[in-house]
Amino acid sequence: MGGLIDMLPGDCVSKILSFTSPTDAYRSSMVSSMFHSAAESDVVWEMFLPTDYKDVVSRLIAPLTFTTKKELFVCLCNLALIDGGRKSFKLEKLSGKISYMLSARELSITWGNDPMQWSWKSIPQSRFSEVAKLRTTSWLEIRGKINTQILSSNTRYGAYLIMKISNRAYGLDSIPSEVSIEVGNKVCNGMAYLRHEDGMQQQMEYMFYRNRIEVLRKRVIEGTQRTLNEREDGWLEIELGEFFSGEANEEVKMSLMEVKGYQLKGGLVIEGIEVRPRH
After folding, report:
1. pLDDT band at 173, cuts 50/70/90?
2. What is the C-alpha separation between 101 and 33, in angstroms, rounded?
3. 49-58: per-residue pLDDT in tens?
4. In this structure, are strands 186-192 and 155-170 parallel, antiparallel, or unpaired?
5. How far apart are CA 89 and CA 56, in angstroms?
6. How confident is the model over 84-140, as pLDDT tens digits?
7. Residue 162 CB: number of other CB atoms within 10 A?
8. The sheet that has 108-109: what strands, in order across it?
9. Predicted local confidence at residue 23, as pLDDT
């Protein structure tokens, strides 16, 4: 069978490989010299690039150097800042699926421009030039939106709020925050505790404010409970929900809110919302 395939014209093999995946192309390139040549073809790798890749490249803040479509694909598998550094873009190396991250500046943060409640700082741990630091507020509301048109089609996505919690944080886990994803008439609700790592502090707060906390928690809409997870880059993330990116272009609305407790809270650092394929 291998001999018969080797007899096919190289452009024919390239066309066949273009209907597979980046993983298959990488593997095929090791089969024979003919397959290697076919797997390197621009015909193959242009199919693995997003349909709007030229637009994406034009929005990069740091120009890329490439001579082939495969080199461009590999470049885009590394996180790249676009739109003046307010968003990041990345392709998954094995699948070619698209991920985006919206910086805090791309989000709608209630009272985000009030210096008494929020401040905007540059920190070395962030990929973006600014992050939002919560000083103190009784109304925590963070919203973002993205269109499925710029994502990979027929793919299930998750949306994640990327954050840090300072050692002096307070009031964030008295009651759970409400998280949601809305696409058209479909809404996915959940609850998320923005828990501080200091377990002793949590116990003390609960001991002194137990009755109030129990009353406040009854105000929250029931939903799947989310937990904070630590990322490889040192940040924390909490899942806001998931959605399906189909063929039609739809607006995805993402949010985290804690507006029912009225207690003061502070010590939260927001980097942005990441939208990436679920596996």
Report:
1. confident
2. 39
3. 999 999 999 9
4. unpaired
5. 8
6. 999 999 999 999 999 999 999 999 999 999 999 999 999 999 999 999 999 999 999
7. 23
8. 108-109, 140-147, 251-258, 177-183, 186-192, 224-226
9. 83
SS3 of the chain = CHHHHHCCCHHHHHHHHCCCCHHHHHHHCCCCHHHHHHHCCHHHHHHHCCCCHHHHHHCECCCCCCCCHHHHHHHHCCCEEEHHHCEEEEECCCCCCEEEEEEHHHCEECCCCCCCCEEEECCCCCCCCCEEEECCECCEEEEEEEEHHHCCCCEEEEEEEEEEEEEEEECCCCCCEEEEEEECCEEEEEEECCCCCCHHHHHHHHHHHHHHHHHHHCCCCCCEEECCEECCCCCEEEEEEEEEECCCCCEEEEEEEECCCCCCEEEEEEEEEEEEECC
CA 133, 224, 173: angle at the middle one, nearest 5? 35
Which amino acid, 121? K
Query: Residue for token digits 């390197």?
Result: 40
Give me the pLDDT at residue 227, please: 83
Encode pLDDT of 3-29 as tens digits: 555 566 556 777 777 777 888 887 876
Neighbouring residues of 136: CB distance < 8 A, sequence distance ≥ 6 = 116, 117, 264, 265, 266
